[in-house]
Structure formats: C-alpha cells, structure tokens
Amino acid sequence: MSSNEPPLGNALIGQSGGPTCVINQSLVGVIETCVGSDRVKNVYGALHGIQGVLEDNLIDLGRESKETLEAVAKTPCAALRSVRMKPTREQCEEALRAFQKNDIRYFFYVGGNDSAETAHILNEVAVAQNYDVRLFHVPKTIDNDLRVTDHCPGYGSAAKFVASAFMGDNQDNRSLNGIKIDVVMGRHAGWLTAASLLAREHEDDGPHLIYVPERAFDLDRFIGDVEDMHSKHGRCLVAVSEGIHGPNGELIVPSKEVDSHGNAQLSGSGALGDFLAAEIKTRLGSKLRVRADTFGYLQRSFAGYYSEVDAQEAREVGRRAARAATTGEVQHGSVYIARHDDAGKYRASFELTELKNVAKETRDMEEGFLRGDNDIDPSFLDYVRPLVGDLCSAARLSDFPR
Amino acid sequence: MSSNEPPLGNALIGQSGGPTCVINQSLVGVIETCVGSDRVKNVYGALHGIQGVLEDNLIDLGRESKETLEAVAKTPCAALRSVRMKPTREQCEEALRAFQKNDIRYFFYVGGNDSAETAHILNEVAVAQNYDVRLFHVPKTIDNDLRVTDHCPGYGSAAKFVASAFMGDNQDNRSLNGIKIDVVMGRHAGWLTAASLLAREHEDDGPHLIYVPERAFDLDRFIGDVEDMHSKHGRCLVAVSEGIHGPNGELIVPSKEVDSHGNAQLSGSGALGDFLAAEIKTRLGSKLRVRADTFGYLQRSFAGYYSEVDAQEAREVGRRAARAATTGEVQHGSVYIARHDDAGKYRASFELTELKNVAKETRDMEEGFLRGDNDIDPSFLDYVRPLVGDLCSAARLSDFPR
Known about the structure:
2 copies of one chain form a homodimer. Chain A folds into 2 domains: 9-153 and 306-358, Rossmann fold; 155-304 and 365-388, 3-Layer(aba) Sandwich (Rossmann fold), CATH 3.40.50. In chain A, 36% of the residues lie in helices and 19% in strands. Chain A has 13 helices and 13 strands. In chain A, strand 10 and strand 11 form a beta hairpin. The radius of gyration of chain A is 22 Å and the shape is elongated. At the A-B interface, strand 2, strand 3, helix 3, helix 6 and helix 9 of A face strand 2, strand 3, helix 3, helix 6 and helix 9 of B.
C-alpha cells in the first residue's frame, strides 16, 4: 500500500448486509472523524448502501447534532438502512460516475466480506478510470467470519446475547427437564454458536452438545449423542449452528429461498430446529419432552444489551478507517483488529490490510477451538471472554440434605 | 379470612410451572422471612414442586448463606427446579401425609393459577383432616394472566425483553425491508404480546400489527392487514401471540402434544410463525421477503436482563406471603399486587386474597386495552411502563437532505 496526498472533496458512507447491535458505532466513528478532517468538505450517507449510491439517494450526515449521533451509535441496526446487493462491474462503473458527479473522494462501506468485495471492485474501477476516490471497508458481522482480523465488530455483542440466552435456557432446562435444541446464527462458521460454551459453569451445565458448520453433520450420530447426554444428565441442551450441513455441504433442511448473493435463507424460520426436534421424538420416543428455539434476528438486533468492548472497538474501527483515508496513510483498505496481551490483560490495536485480503472468502474457526465433532474446546473461552466482557453468573442452591 | 395463633413447625417451599427471570426473588423473599420467624424451626425446599413433596425429595434451605441466596435471587428459572403437575385429590392427601411426617406447618407454592389450585386443594384436605398447615400461593407468571392482582411478578421482566426485542427488530426491519412476524408467548391472554407496543416510538415504527388471543384470529383478514401495512410503510412488522385461535378456540396450527394440565404445546416450536410466513408468501407473492421468529424460552429465562421493579416486587411478594403466614394474619391465601398512584408516581402494595380467587381461571386483557382486532390501545402504555422500568431508546438519523 502506497500513500499520497489525500484529495479535497466529499465523503460518503454506506452500510450493507445483516445488521449488528454496534454497527452504528462504526458509522458514527467515520462521521466524527470525517467531520474533523480538513480534507472533507461534506459527509454524506447513502441510504441502503450501494443501492442508494446508484439511485442518488444520499443524505447529509454533517448536519447531525452530536447528541443525535451518540444516540444513534447506541441503537442497533443500520441507521443508514442496509441492502443485500452484490453489484456487477457495470453497476460499480455507474456508482463511480455517481461519485464523480457528487465529488465523492472518500467512500466507507460498513459490512462483511461481500461489502469488502464491492469496495474492492469499486477501487479497481476507480483506478482504471484514474479517478481519485479512497475506498475503505469497515468490518462488521456477528458471524465473526472475516479473514485477517482477530475478531469482527458486532461479534462480541452477539456472543454476549447467545451466552446469556444459553445461561438462562440451561437454568430453564435444569428446572423443567427435557431435550432442548437452540439454533444459533452462523452460515459458514461456528463462532457465534461456540459462544454458547460461556454458559457452561458447572460440570453438568448445558449446552451439553455444540454443533458447528466446521464439522460435517450426521443425523444418526447426532441422535446418538443426544441419547447419551440425556441418559447421563436426565436432560440435554444442544447448541446448533443454522449452517450445519452434511459432508458435501448439503443443508439439513433445504431452503427454498436464495438471496442475491446466492445464499440460501437460513434465518427467519424455525425449520431446522423443528426438524431436529421431530427426528429426536421419532427415534427416541414420542413421550420425551423435546423443544426447539431458533434465536433468530434477536442475536443481531436486540436493543439495549451489548458488549461494551465491542461497542468501543466498533467505534474505533470506524475512526481508524476515516483517519487512514483522510491522512493519506493508505489509499484503500480494510481495518482489522489485532489482539495483544498486556501482562495478561487483553488489548486491541486497529490495523490496515488490503481490500482483497478480506473480500469474498470467509474464515472458519481454528481446529484447536473444536473438540471432537460435537463440542468446543475450553481454550476458546480465553479467545471469546474479553470480547463479550462482563456476564452475569448463574447461581445454584447448595442442595443441603435435610 | 380469620386469623389465629400460628403454629410452631417447619416451612416448605416449592416452585411450579414455567419459569420467570425473577422467580427466585420470590423464593428468597420467602426463605429470608421464614428464617427470621420464631414460628419456623426449619426451612425446607421441595425439589420439582409437588413432585418433590410426594417423593420426599426435600433440601434444607436454612443452611444457605446470604451470599448464595442473593446470587440465586438474580438467577433466572426455578432454583428449586420446577414441575408441570396437577395433583389429584388422592395425591394431595398423600402430600398432606408428607407434611405431617415432616412437621410442615407452612407451605408456600410459587407458581401460576394451576399452583394456586394445588394449594387450594391441599388446604381443603388439611382442613378436612384437621391438620394445621398454612398454605400460601406466591404468584408468578410471564403471562400476567392471574386474577385479582394488578399484574404478576415475572411479567415486567418478560415485557422488557419483548419490548427490547421489538425495538431492535423494528430497526432490523427498517434497515432491511420486508415482512417480519414475531411470535410471542401467551397461551390465553395477550399481555406479553401487547408489550411490543413499547417499541413504537415513531409514527411508522413497528409493530404495525398486534394479534392477541382475546380476539378471534381470521387468516384472510390477517393477510389483508399485512398487505395494507406493507403498502403503506414498504415493510411490516407483526406481533403475534402464540395463543391466537379461531372463533371457536381452534388453534391456527394444531399441536400434537398436550401436557398434564391439558394444555397443548405452543412454545418450543417455530410452527405458527413459519405457517403464517408461508401463507403470506403463497397469497401475496413468493418474491416478498417474509421472515418469522419465535421468541421462545428466552422470554422467560434470558439471563442478566430484567426489570428492576419486577425483581423488587417479586421479592416483596415472597416476603409478604411468609409474613402473613408466620404472623397468623391469615391461615391461607395468595398475595396480589395493588397499584396506586402517588401524585402521578407508580406505587405497589402487597395484599392478600383467598386461594380460590386466583385458582383455575385466567384473566384476559381488558377491552379498553384492545384496539380493533389487530392493535393495542396506547392507554396500555400507562399500565405497562412502570412495570418494565427503564428502556433504551431507538434513535434515528434526521435524514437531512443533501
């Protein structure tokens, strides 16, 4: 990455893909840094991401009060509204013409790997046409599956939600015994599902089984696992990633709907959980109390419950991108988070990488974090705990004999 | 209700039915008050409610440290473990023999209307056999459908969860437009579903439609309502109670499973939401983005997120029951919460009523809280706000034109 004099002009921000609880922290981080830069004349927002660019649907973010911005930062889901759209090269050329028309010299795209890919193509188009616009990807995803970065803004808050949900549901399952399946978001990777491990405080606590997409899912083995755990504990709480699939990538419950990124619909339906619950009843006995919950959109949007660390980092990632752009540190890129150990204390730093390094592909969990094909290794707790921050603790009675 | 000298003997506590996030506050309220009473020799707990009484599965609660009790109070779901069991009169006679054997003179049953009914039958059996045991029902239910009381311990926390979930999901739906159905707990009454109204801050905020069991559900009308709202707002967020049914009480998606109380399984499955989503697609167009989430057990068990007012009241309800019992104020009864208006400020007082007044039947929402057949009246907000306490606010950008 070479650097050169940053141009004078307007900045534009867009948000894309599924929301997170802290995605607006990044938005506000970009806005406040751009507003404070002498290279930026106006700070605009594109409504519904790249679609807003193509439709010239822009708003003026520079006029927002500090109070509004701080309140928006604490509000979940894309304040600029989002979009699921993978623009073609022709559309990217059209977007570039919109940039030129509006004197856009800085473009920040808050999103996942598909958004990084969009920024990457936009950059190629801009370079080809010799138009100086600084293109930056600002990472976010509850799935935590972006490459290069240690973890993704949005993940810590979603992981905190999942951990708290399992902590409560473990108490529920212990209180009224039965077999309970909870389906957690995560199309390609098990990072979010793995966060359920935070709920396991006592030896017999659930989740007793954890299934992630990194391991091929086998229904017969699953039923056997559930039967074993139910025999052992008199109950069984299971964490299942929505993205689990067979050895050839085939989904357990085929989806009828595919989005413009070619992704099959997984969330927004209870189908997988209900299917697994029905299979357990059919095979292990219809008198068993078997229930399934699919956590759904709450994981990415629940208002008022988030990780403080995650919120701070999401803000800083936005600031870092805007600073890198407006100081000319690099001409394009994506921000990533590096993890440091300061005498046993977690610390993050915010670094830059090329757009192509983050675009397209996703990142699975590391092998060392997996334990067999139905559990997560305790070493994962060291990874996830600092990102989630303070969690309540589930207390038990001592059950003193009378 | 007459009063007489409270006997000297042991106290026993049980928890029954579906959990709440503050059910252990009531448990600890009873324990601490009993421990402090000179009429109580030992404080025991029955594991899994009346089942623990019948199986002589008792623990000693008097030996728990104050630290443990305070930690347990903050932990969701029955720390004594729960049960769904409606004992027969014969089983109640057996339970009374267990009381006599263990010198139980005070029995506190934390639960809903079925638990009040159990306490009521136990009381009849005790009176018939001339055994002096003071039987008390300590109310709890997220459904808020007990009679006599202004509201039920457990409801405020569940309502806070539902409100926060809808607040976030409204942002999600505004961010990525579509039709979204969220299914909320509540078998007989719409109290919890109605709490979704708290998420409606701006005129165009969802939930745009709210369906409760108090109104007969008509699928054709529902589809028409969704179509209208979708045309108006370009999106539609719908709150649906799991207990909605047709004019003759028939469920929309028949359940295969029935519990020992004769209740059909509603929760722990995404069937209703998925059915409604599929109907919308079939009738309004398969290209529509339609999603459904079923909030499930999180509403009653999510750890670390509750209403402070609810937690305090749940504690006080337990204390009040134990105080009434051990001072001989009444010989049996249930505690209810009365609402007072202290110069515009909400205040609760804790009163006593006969067991039979709370047993068996449930309480629907008042007509005045319903608005047509698909919405809740804003007057409901005055009812529910003090019970939920502080909620975060969902902020928007001003969308200043460029």
